[in-house]
């Protein structure tokens, strides 16, 4: 029996402190997160709040929507039992199986179906299980959803469509559970792309996407689903789209990011202040397309330096578009070249994630170089 | 040698394995805690396809003493014989004990439903929908008006007046027969060769022309190539070029309409070529699983540009795919307007009543080229085309039906030809003279509201035009 237990332990799990275990040389512990989530002050303007993590804030937004809009339906793979990230827990029981339902395993079908629902006047909320799997739906999104209103001369549109997908690195997701594909869609006029940094932001931005009369893609940073916990208003509220938010004012350099990376930038700002005496202005872009050019440029005119950071590969990433526009608008104000700290031009690796991601040390180092340019 | 019953019992215990794959099967919790010796000997027996019993087991399944070991749990416990049926969640079926592949039947495939023969005579009087004279005359006039418009607009492309055109020659029956069986409120998703549906519903010649000329009257604001029609009032969703994308959309629209409880159906047209797209598979599967009131109408016209059907699929056309999705399906003679009418009418009635999709495969022939960019003599014989034009055409078959009843004759034909041509030519001449839409319309409707960045781009375009206006055809565009 003891021998059997020994066998099973050796076969599978991490070694514990039992004397029967041969000591491993520096066991690699699975990495702790590369940032710390700081909850923001409780919003007071939207009514009573409740402690929620990010997936619960999404559930809350969906709950509010299903309650107030009788045409609203939620669908995708595995949403009926609550979803692989628990974003739709309880909704089917509460609102009925004709409103919260599973679809066959087919992303092009999910989005195509969603477009049709929207064209017929229903509020369609489609879930793609991971942003990495959105690509079969690329044709429907780019050639159909984005162009529906334009090509029909505004006779038809699918503005009632919102597509939600978990997004970004999660520590162990590797190639197909970590992607940030916003740049592919930013190149396509006609859709909106929104990425929240926190539960309060997620609920307000998602509700704005749902109400917005244009097809929207809402990417949810999966690493924040459980890790980000805040007091979130229980009632419906909206945070405007295409408005970036200045989280922290500063005078020496603008740090621009979205989603999870905003929290990395906040830490970079603290490090820069402490170690370099550099005053950083931190901006959360929030809407990737159409993006708030005015707020970003206003900031760069003030600071003279811009650092943009995202997990997605650097080449053709959205930082490239931002850099190009900002240098056009603010050329003479720049004290240093615009710097991008992004993922490398590789698929998202598994065991090499700690080296791949644009962590606070890489960003800190970039700040240092830019200040000393 | 194990007995028959034990053999079949042992098969039931072990999930079907790929032959030769060794796996640790846990038949009971007691087997979780094992000695090292045990681990080497606990294997699932090879799946005994031939029913030869213990002799099939390989010598690998040996313990240290060299004798074959059968895990104790496999040996005797008989399963409840009353439950000797497959229990798989994935299919509801009986067992079968002989190996036989299901043969796809393409030699004598799904039969083709028709009401009239090729000479327009009713074959089975009980299938004659016995439509009133005015209705049948209207069918005929719509089909021939479409044909006339096609001739004139095809010519106008050849003369450089419009950029592109697609004719509907030979398929007029599929359009009019199906459109007539629908309510005006039913939502239509098309591919691009369904202009007759729109014409039947009353889309004016002026608006067909406006779209083809992309002039100021175009409801689509001049943004798309010719024949990409759309009409909100007539419930005809604007055509888009990518093929089959409308199929899953139609399923979604049908689902929304089902929830509204308004007794409307959605119809979705596509060709046999588009049916090869992944979106078609997606649409069929979604419509069936989500119980959508939807008619899938496939125009199987023999060609996808130059690709004949034997290079498009190997099965029995599109209708045979329906049952694979759990969908009621029928194949009809698409050149028989009454057959199309009857099938669509019944499909509509049941789709709404039963909330399920129907698949109608209308067999027909594309008499014209794929488009003005195509010369089909490159891939098919003139004889083949002539056969369909002369011997099996929806318009002539209906005309025979009408003349047999004394509803139509040479005089009516002459008069109508003259009148329909006049109508088309007048609309054509009006459309020719109209201006193009205002260039501002290049920038609107991308989003509901125009983003600031796009406003800036529009302003920059006008600044450019101010300076370089002689290089741009501004005179043809609305000021």
Automatic annotation (TrEMBL), chain A:
Function: Together with BCKDHA forms the heterotetrameric E1 subunit of the mitochondrial branched-chain alpha-ketoacid dehydrogenase (BCKD) complex. The BCKD complex catalyzes the multi-step oxidative decarboxylation of alpha-ketoacids derived from the branched-chain amino-acids valine, leucine and isoleucine producing CO2 and acyl-CoA which is subsequently utilized to produce energy. The E1 subunit catalyzes the first step with the decarboxylation of the alpha-ketoacid forming an enzyme-product intermediate.
Assembly behavior: Heterotetramer of 2 alpha/BCKDHA and 2 beta chains/BCKDHB that forms the branched-chain alpha-keto acid decarboxylase (E1) component of the BCKD complex. The branched-chain alpha-ketoacid dehydrogenase is a large complex composed of three major building blocks E1, E2 and E3. It is organized around E2, a 24-meric cubic core composed of DBT, to which are associated 6 to 12 copies of E1, and approximately 6 copies of the dehydrogenase E3, a DLD dimer.
InterPro entries xref list: THDP-binding, Transketo_C/PFOR_II, Transketolase-like_Pyr-bd, Transketolase_C
PANTHER family assigned to the protein according to its UniProt record, in alphabetical order: 2-OXOISOVALERATE DEHYDROGENASE SUBUNIT BETA, MITOCHONDRIAL, 2-OXOISOVALERATE DEHYDROGENASE SUBUNIT BETA-RELATED
Entry-linked Pfam families: Transket_pyr, Transketolase_C
Cofactor: thiamine diphosphate
GO cellular component: mitochondrial matrix
Catalytic activity: N(6)-[(R)-lipoyl]-L-lysyl-[protein] + 3-methyl-2-oxobutanoate + H(+) = N(6)-[(R)-S(8)-2-methylpropanoyldihydrolipoyl]-L-lysyl-[protein] + CO2
GO MF annotations, alphabetized: branched-chain 2-oxo acid dehydrogenase activity
Keyword Mitochondrion (UniProt): yes
Location of the Transketolase-like pyrimidine-binding domain: 52-227
Record localization: Mitochondrion matrix
Protein name according to UniProt: 2-oxoisovalerate dehydrogenase subunit beta, mitochondrial
EC number: 1.2.4.4
From TrEMBL, chain B:
GO-annotated molecular function: branched-chain 2-oxo acid dehydrogenase activity; metal ion binding
Positions of the Dehydrogenase E1 component domain: 141-439
Subcellular localization: Mitochondrion matrix
GO terms for biological process, alphabetical: branched-chain amino acid catabolic process
EC primary class: oxidoreductase
Entry EC number(s): 1.2.4.4
Cofactor: thiamine diphosphate
Pfam families associated with the record: E1_dh
Catalytic reaction(s) noted: N(6)-[(R)-lipoyl]-L-lysyl-[protein] + 3-methyl-2-oxobutanoate + H(+) = N(6)-[(R)-S(8)-2-methylpropanoyldihydrolipoyl]-L-lysyl-[protein] + CO2
InterPro entries: Alpha-ketoacid_DH_E1_comp, DH_E1, THDP-binding
An example Gene Ontology CC term for this record: mitochondrial matrix
Entry keywords, A to Z: Metal-binding, Mitochondrion, Oxidoreductase, Potassium, Thiamine pyrophosphate, Transit peptide
UniProt record similarity statement: Belongs to the BCKDHA family.
Quaternary structure and interacting proteins, as annotated: Heterotetramer of 2 alpha/BCKDHA and 2 beta chains/BCKDHB that forms the branched-chain alpha-keto acid decarboxylase (E1) component of the BCKD complex. The branched-chain alpha-ketoacid dehydrogenase is a large complex composed of three major building blocks E1, E2 and E3. It is organized around E2, a 24-meric cubic core composed of DBT, to which are associated 6 to 12 copies of E1, and approximately 6 copies of the dehydrogenase E3, a DLD dimer. Interacts with PPM1K.
Function of the molecule: Together with BCKDHB forms the heterotetrameric E1 subunit of the mitochondrial branched-chain alpha-ketoacid dehydrogenase (BCKD) complex. The BCKD complex catalyzes the multi-step oxidative decarboxylation of alpha-ketoacids derived from the branched-chain amino-acids valine, leucine and isoleucine producing CO2 and acyl-CoA which is subsequently utilized to produce energy. The E1 subunit catalyzes the first step with the decarboxylation of the alpha-ketoacid forming an enzyme-product intermediate.
Protein name, entry field: 2-oxoisovalerate dehydrogenase subunit alpha
Organismal lineage: Eukaryota, Metazoa, Chordata, Craniata, Vertebrata
Record gene name: BCKDHA
């Amino acid at each position: 029996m003891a021998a059997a237990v020994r066998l099973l332990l050796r076969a599978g799990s991490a070694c514990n402190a039992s004397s029967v275990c041969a000591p491993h040389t520096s066991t690699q512990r699975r990495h702790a997160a590369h940032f710390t989530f700081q909850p923001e002050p409780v919003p007071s303007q939207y009514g009573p709040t409740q402690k929620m993590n990010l997936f619960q804030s999404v559930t809350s937004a969906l709950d509010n929507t299903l309650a107030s809009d009788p045409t609203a339906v939620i669908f995708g793979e595995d949403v009926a039992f609550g979803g692989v990230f628990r974003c739709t827990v309880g909704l089917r029981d509460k609102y009925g199986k004709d409103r919260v339902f599973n679809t066959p395993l087919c992303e092009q079908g999910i989005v195509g179906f969603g477009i049709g629902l929207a064209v017929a006047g229903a509020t369609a909320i489609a879930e793609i299980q991971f942003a990495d799997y959105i690509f079969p739906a690329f044709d429907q999104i780019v050639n159909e959803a984005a162009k529906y209103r334009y090509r029909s001369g505004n006779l038809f549109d699918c503005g009632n469509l919102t597509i939600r997908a978990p997004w970004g690195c999660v520590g162990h997701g590797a190639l197909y559970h970590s992607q940030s594909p916003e740049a592919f869609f930013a190149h396509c006029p006609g859709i909106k792309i929104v990425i929240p940094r926190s539960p309060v932001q997620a609920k307000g931005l998602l509700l704005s996407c749902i109400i917005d009369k244009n097809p929207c893609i809402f990417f949810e940073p999966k690493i924040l689903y459980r890790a980000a916990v805040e007091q979130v208003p229980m009632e419906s509220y909206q945070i405007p789209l295409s408005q970036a938010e200045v989280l922290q004012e500063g005078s020496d350099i603008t740090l621009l990011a979205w989603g999870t990376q905003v929290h990395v930038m906040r830490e970079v700002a603290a490090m820069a202040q402490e170690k370099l005496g550099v005053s950083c202005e931190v901006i959360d872009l929030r809407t990737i397309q159409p993006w708030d050019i005015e707020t970003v440029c206003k900031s760069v005119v003030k600071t003279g330096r811009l650092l943009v950071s995202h997990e997605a590969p650097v080449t053709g990433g959205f930082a490239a578009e931002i850099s190009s526009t900002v240098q056009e608008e603010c050329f003479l104000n720049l004290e240093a070249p615009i710097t991008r700290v992004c993922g490398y031009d590789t698929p998202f690796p598994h065991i090499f994630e700690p080296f791949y991601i644009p962590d606070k040390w890489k960003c800190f180092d970039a700040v240092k170089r830019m200040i000393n340019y | 040698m194990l007995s028959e019953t034990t053999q079949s019992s042992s098969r039931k215990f072990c999930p079907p394995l790929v032959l030769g794959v060794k796996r640790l099967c846990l038949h009971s919790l007691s087997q979780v805690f094992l000695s090292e010796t045990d681990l080497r000997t606990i294997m699932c027996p090879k799946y005994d396809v031939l029913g030869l019993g213990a002799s099939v087991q390989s010598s690998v399944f040996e313990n240290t003493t060299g004798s074959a070991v059968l895990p104790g749990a496999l040996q005797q416990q008989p399963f409840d014989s009353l439950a000797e049926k497959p229990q798989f969640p994935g299919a509801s079926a009986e067992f079968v004990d002989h190996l036989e592949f299901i043969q796809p039947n393409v030699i004598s495939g799904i039969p083709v439903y028709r009401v009239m023969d090729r000479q327009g005579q009713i074959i089975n009087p009980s299938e004659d929908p016995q439509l009133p004279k005015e209705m049948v005359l209207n069918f005929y006039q719509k089909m021939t008006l479409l044909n006339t418009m096609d001739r004139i607009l095809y010519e106008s492309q050849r003369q450089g007046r419009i950029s592109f055109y697609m004719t509907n020659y030979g398929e007029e029956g599929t359009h009019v027969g199906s459109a007539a069986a629908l309510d005006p409120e039913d939502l239509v998703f098309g591919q691009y060769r369904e202009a007759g549906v729109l014409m039947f519903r009353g889309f004016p010649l002026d608006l067909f022309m406006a779209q083809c000329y992309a002039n100021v009257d175009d409801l689509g604001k001049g943004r798309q190539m010719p024949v990409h029609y759309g009409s909100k009032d007539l419930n005809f969703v604007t055509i888009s070029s990518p093929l089959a994308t409308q199929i899953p959309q139609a399923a979604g629209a049908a689902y929304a309409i089902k929830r509204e409880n308004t007794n409307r159906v959605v119809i979705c047209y596509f060709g046999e070529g588009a049916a090869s797209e992944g979106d078609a598979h997606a649409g069929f599967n979604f419509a069936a699983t989500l119980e959508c009131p939807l008619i899938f109408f496939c125009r199987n016209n023999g060609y996808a540009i130059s690709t004949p059907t034997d290079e498009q699929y190997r099965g029995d056309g599109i209708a045979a795919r329906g049952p694979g999705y759990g969908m009621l399906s029928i194949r009809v003679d698409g050149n028989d307007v009454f057959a199309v009418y009857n099938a669509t009418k019944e499909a509509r009635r049941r789709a709404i009543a039963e909330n399920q999709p129907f698949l109608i495969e209308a067999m027909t022939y594309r008499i014209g080229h794929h488009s003005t960019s195509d010369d089909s003599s490159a891939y098919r014989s003139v004889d083949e085309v002539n056969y369909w034009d002369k011997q099996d055409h929806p318009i002539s078959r209906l005309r025979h039906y009408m003349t047999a009843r004394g509803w139509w004759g040479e005089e009516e034909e002459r008069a109508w030809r003259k009148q329909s041509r006049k109508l088309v030519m007048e609309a054509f001449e009006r459309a020719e003279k109209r201006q193009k839409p205002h260039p501002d319309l290049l920038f609107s409707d991308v989003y509901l509201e125009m983003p600031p960045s796009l406003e800036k781009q529009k302003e920059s375009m006008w600044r450019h035009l101010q300076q370089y206006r002689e290089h741009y055809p501004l005179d043809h565009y609305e000021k």
